[in-house]
Amino acid sequence: MTREERQLREAIVAKCRWMNASGLNQGTSGNISARYKDRMLITPSATPYDAMKPDMIAAMPIDGKEYGSWEGPLQPSTEWRFHLDIMRGRPDVGGVVHTHSTYATVLAIARKPIPACHYMMAAFGGNDIRCAGYARYGTKELSELALAALEGRNGCLLANHGMIAVGANLDKAMWLAVELETIARQYYLSLALGAPHILGEEEIAETARGFSTYGLQPPKAKPAKARLTTAAARKRPEKKLSTKR
Ligand SMILES: [Zn+2]
């Protein structure tokens, strides 16, 4: 195993623990995957996150002949189908986060898509977050419904189930999972207050243009920025030390 793959596996475990500690997810209901070259690394089925170790992460070929084949000491998450189908159908996606976070799930139970109630909707690639129709967990049918709801989007709700957020890498996918749950909570509360004002297509498009000129990525995506700083610091360690002295 390369150092890079090891680090990605460690990041998956760390993100699983973080998403439960932060309240975004409960128990072992969520699952996370990340693209590593021609394989998908995915959390194992029904394994408590505090007992999960990087070696327990399952690996599945993304475009192999044997759809659904896997390697590892434990079976991949029961939701491996939509993770794998997203990786196959969306080459832009490097990370997938699935949770049963409360407010996104509440809206999914009411089968309510989320309209552009907040400008952060622009981070999801369009004017709404769709709600995929219902199919039993783990099925190919659910995967197909999820992929359709994710068309041109970085997130969707799953009817009577939860939500999915996708990103170019694991950090972005987790950031969007938090944003999706936040927008879901804001929308739910604005519905409780009554008559929320919804932004128009042009307002969301304008925000999306703002995001694209803000920098390499939307605001708040701090992990990537931190990496850049670290890489820059690594290049000239002597200079940094001498400046301090
Ligand atoms: Zn689920």
Please explain how this structure is put together.
There is one protein chain. By secondary structure, this protein is α+β, with helices and mostly antiparallel strands. It has one domain (3-220): Class II aldolase/adducin N-terminal domain (L-fuculose-1-phosphate Aldolase), CATH 3.40.225. It has eight helices and nine strands. The protein has helices at residues 3-21, 80-89, 102-109, 140-149, 170-193, 201-214, 222-235, 237-244; strands at residues 31-36, 39-42, 58-61, 95-99, 114-115, 128-129, 131-132, 155-158, 162-167. The strands form two sheets. A seven-stranded mixed beta sheet has the order 3-2-1-4-9-8-7, with helices on both faces. A two-stranded antiparallel sheet has the order 5-6. Strand 8 (155-158) and strand 9 form a beta hairpin. Helix 2 (80-89) packs across helix 4 (140-149) and helix 3 (102-109) packs across helix 5 (170-193). The radius of gyration is 19 Å and the shape is globular. The termini are far apart. The site of zinc ion has 7 residues, from loops.
